[in-house]
Structure prediction request, 406 residues.
Amino acid sequence: MAFVTMKPGTLLSPVPAVLVSSGMPGESGPVCNVMTAAWTGTVCSDPPMVSVSVRPSRYTYELIEKSGEFVISLTDRKLLRAADYCGVRSGREEDKFARCGLTKVPAQGMAFAPAIAESPVYLACRVAERLAPGSHVIYIGRVVSMGVREDLLSPDGAIRLDRADLIAYSHGVYTALGETLGFFGFSVASPKVFARRMKQLRG
Amino acid sequence: MAFVTMKPGTLLSPVPAVLVSSGMPGESGPVCNVMTAAWTGTVCSDPPMVSVSVRPSRYTYELIEKSGEFVISLTDRKLLRAADYCGVRSGREEDKFARCGLTKVPAQGMAFAPAIAESPVYLACRVAERLAPGSHVIYIGRVVSMGVREDLLSPDGAIRLDRADLIAYSHGVYTALGETLGFFGFSVASPKVFARRMKQLRG
Prediction:
């Protein structure tokens, strides 16, 4: 079937829709905020680094500019409504943590940016690079600590992210993750290894 | 439930697992390659830009360095095996297009990098920025053209990416996308708008 050539757009998909929390010192104690970002991705394995893009009009932009840090919280199905709400409303107008029932907890290595207790995984990041190519400022963050909810760790220490019920975002639509289809390297695995790994993953 | 603090890692999830094609002039005509990248993300809306991270040991690195361009092809369930294979085998050893049954077609605005006919969507990109923070080189690409398979366009011109059967990658595991859970802004939509949009999306 043929392609229809269209005006360039942001159609990379599916992407995560994560909560990005940030903070800074305020006049009467620390202030913080949480927003949703789908313009995020892993950019380096060693050291582990991620990108998060933020419009300069956002309150989060001000907090990251001042603190040089942010925390990414992965979103699961229970966080769907919060993830949507924190993407459309501003923390300048209301406390979105309180509004969405999100509990701030300390994230190792962060001075101000909190993790969110309701999230399955957090990645605490310090800004390593900053680019300003247009509508968004791109923050390249080095992951300085990572927290995984204890029920997602199997007895052998493996992280079972496949049990986290994560959500994805695809061209304006949030979806659940569905059936497990394979594992990295399955296409070159022996039938025996394939059967064993798929049984583990589906079990 | 409590977080277990762990060594920092690349746990951002779910992420796309896209095919990245590239090319350059060779001694006996153009050469090209295709690899899989999960370290990719949208980084800017206007202009539309994406990041793709590539290890310098990869053949694709050489091609992008020489040509300054690449094409991202989204992956659906039919492309799952190709997406895995093109992530573990090198184009220096074999023609992965031929091996995986991928058909090269021209991508508007690209001198050498082909689109893949079997993919639902391609994003043709020119390298705008390049960062080298560690194991991977980060290419920030400006999307210069975009192709959408014609069956994904509804009569009103809307892109129905929710019908593309895309796959996601999450900590070493490929998954299908599942149930449609909501749309951007649903948490602040009126019940009437919510019902109408969800009916459209699920219909």
Summary: DSSP finds four helices and twelve strands in chain A. The longest strand of chain A covers residues 137-149. The domain at 18-202 of chain A is CATH 2.30.110.10 (Pnp Oxidase; Chain A).
